[in-house]
Amino acid sequence: MSKLNVVRTDIALPPEAQLTFVRKFLFECFEGFTEDDNKKWRRFWTALAKKEPGEMALIEMVFPRSGPFHKRHMKIEQVVFDAQERFTDFDMFLDWMKIGAGWVVWVPGPKGGIVPLVRSISYAKADENEFQEFHAKVMAFLRGPHAANYLWPHLKGIWANEMMNTILQEFNE
What we know:
Elements: E1 2-7, H1 16-28, H2 35-49, E2 56-61, H3 67-83, H4 90-101, E3 104-108, E4 114-118, H5 128-143, H6 147-151, H7 158-169
Antiparallel strand pairs: 1-2, 3-4
Helix pairs in contact: 4-5
């Protein structure tokens, strides 16, 4: 789920002629899927327009996940896992990759230090926009200076990177 905070600025609303254009754009170019959705869509924009300067609104949006993109990403993970030499447990490999990609929340650890907890990429926790962001971070991590050398300890430098490149190029990554 994508979340964003918006705040009403102190700039006055535009003149009625411009508002007519805005309404045409919002309510004729976009509409709710059902009549009930249409009512909610209009109420949403009405509520935003009624905000006083300085008032905030938290907007949560869910963009349905692309099945083909999700499957492709999962296939990349599986192929890298199958080719690597460090992990025997797929879930540990995924956690390592999420930590390396920075897909974490930092929390106080049991002894006072800060430790990473991996974030979920479930359909309920990561919509299409967040999953695209996750994918980009994972690809950057896998192509970065650490992942290949760690996954193939017997290969050094350019040879480890070449192994990763060979795998990722199969997917045009």
